[in-house]
Each structure stands twice: as C-alpha cells, then as structure tokens.
Amino acid sequence: MSQADLPRFLDLNDQLVALVRAGVPVHLGLSSRSSDAAIACEHIGSLVARRLGEGVSLGDALGDSAVPHEYRSVVQLALAGDSLPAALAGAGNTAQQRDEARHAVRAALRYPVMICTLAYAGVVLFCLTFVPKLEAMYQSMGIRAGWGLSTAKLLGASLPYWVVIPPLVLVLVVVWLRWPMTAGGATRSFAWIPGMAKLAAEQELSRFADSLAGHLEAGAPFPAALQSAAAAWDSDARQKATLQVAAELARGHLASEQMSSMQQMPPLLQWAIWHADDSVGRSRALRMAAELYRNSAERRTSRLRVLAPVVTCVVIGGGVTLLYALALFIPVAQMIQGLAD
Question: Shortest CA distance to 265 belongs to which of 190, 212, 195, 193?
C-alpha cells in the first residue's frame, strides 16, 4: 500500500475524527477527552498521510512510534475490509465497556470520599473542642490519663502539621479521577481493583479475535492477517510475539504445536486460531470466541457497577467511621474505668 491508498486513508481518518468529536466511544489508544483525542487523531492522520505521500508503505507509516497500536489496528482493518463500522464494532464495544468500568470505579469512590471528608471535619473539631474539655475532666476528677487521651492530645498538638494533608490528598484524588488518560493508562491505573485485570484481559482477547477474523474475512492470507491483527494487543510483548509467529509462519518454519503456545493464549483462542479450520472454520470460530470473551467482559462490568460502590463504602467508609468512633469512645471509656477503680 502506498500513494494509491492515500485518498482512502484520508477519508477514513476524517470519519474517525468526526466520530471522536461526536463523543462516540472508539478505542484508538488516545485521550478519554473527545477534544484532545480528535486533535491527536488529526495529528496522526497528518503524519501517516505525509509518510504515504513520501512513498512509504501504509504498514511502515502506521508503524511510527507516534501512532498508537489501537489506531493502527482499526485503520488496517477498515482499509482491508473497506468498512469502518465493521472495523469499529469490536473497538467500540471495548471502549464502551472500559468507560463503564471507569465510571463505576469513580462513582464507587465518591461515597467514601464524602465519608472521609465528614470524618476529617469531625476529627479537627474533636481536637479543637472536645480534647481540652476531656483533659480538664480527667484533671478535675484526679484520673490518670490513659493511652487514649494521650493519643488524642498528641493528635491535637500536631494539628498544625497534618491539618492540610487530608485536603491535599482529596484534591489529588479528585484530579486523578478526572484527569484524561488513554484507555490503556486508565486500565493500568485501576488495575489494583479486584477483577479489573481480568476484565481488561477479556476485552483484549475479544478485540484480537475480532481483528484477526476481520482480516481473514477481507481475504488476507493467514500469516498476513495474523501480522495485521497483532496491533490489536495492548501488550508490546504480545505484539512482538505475534509478529514473530506470523513471520515464521510465512516462511513455513513454524509447526502448529509451537504456534499453540504463543503468548500463553487461552485454550478457546488457541483452538479458534490453529484447529478450527477442519470443523467450523477459523474465521467463524474467532467470531465465536470474540463474542464469548465480550459477553464475559460485559458480565464483569455489570458486577463491578453493582459491587464497587458497596465494597468501597463498607471497606473505606466503614473503616474511617470505625476509627472516628474509637477516637471518641476510648478516652471516655478509660475515664469511666478510672472512676470505677
């Protein structure tokens, strides 16, 4: 592909820019903010168009380090199949699921942040008003201060040093939650949440299977289709491994037994790629695998949307509330015990 593909590429890039500006979720490896993503998409389009105008092949132009591999995968599939909607089907589903997962996590963190803010205000008032009165009560009744009151006094004495830290942390959390990031960056940022890594892995498998099936259905030979579909991986290591396998396969140096171990793929995807030609067909098997992985990711997203707010409220909100209650209860309980003794 060279100069002859330039008009098709320019038209395709204009369509992608229009979709991004309209707010359509498209997985292109760009910023989650539509205006920034559209500008980046225009810059990438200009870069690739300039390289094509210089006579460089489309594959080499798209291989530039400034071009995200998600963008490269969508463009290659759209040009091969001559259908942008078909190329965006898998990418759009992935982008939508990732947006839903990020929104679920952000919504889940709102309630604990509110509880922590109220608890912080309560601790400050506790140190400024309640601790001095409680200390006076201890002294008037001749009760020896226990570790609870000593800790409260230390907390109050150090108030000027730590009072600005929680608001600063809150501001950083809010900025982090609202900061625009690429889909891959957002996935890595939320990878500490249980289930998010598995969700991202299933989305990646679904996108790769869809991309490989699309190239095969467009008439590409299997090695060439495998080489083009490698851009659908989020992992650079998986991309390199897939490209190596495609190159060896094109030279006829790779046996099917060796192919099945590529990137430690799940058994279903291994069967769809290497062993489905004799039964349902490779392309149909890949579509089936993509659908299964996509449905599994959708179920995980639905569970995350329901469970994330509950779990975060119980763990973070409940933990902060418990600590605040203990800060009030322990000094009073020790005072009552001192009176009893």
Answer: 212
Which residues are CB-neighbours of 158 under 8 A, at least 6 positions away? none
- Which pLDDT belongs to residue 181? 52
CB-CB contact of 27 with 70 (8 Å): yes
* DSSP string for 247-314: HHHHHT---HHHHTTGGG--HHHHIIIII-TTTT-HHHHHHHHHHHHHHHHHHHHHHHHHHHHHHHII
Half-sphere exposure of 235 (CA within 13 A, CB side): 13
Separation CA 30–CA 55 (nearest Å): 27
Residue 266: which of 199, 202, 203 has the closest Cα?
202
| pLDDT one-digit tens code per residue, 131-158 | 888 888 888 888 887 888 888 888 888 8
Q: How far is CA 336 from CA 126, 130, 339, 340, in A?
A: 19, 16, 5, 6
Any residues with CB less than 8 A from the CB of 198 and at least 6 apart, and which? Answer: 300
Alpha-carbon distance 60 to 98, whole Å? 29
- Spatial contact of 31 and 84, defined as CB atoms under 8 Å apart: no
Q: Give residue 311's identity as a one-letter amino acid code.
A: V
- Identify whether the C-beta of residue 105 lies closer than 8 Å to the C-beta of residue 310: no
- What's this model's pTM, rounded to 2 decimal places? 0.68
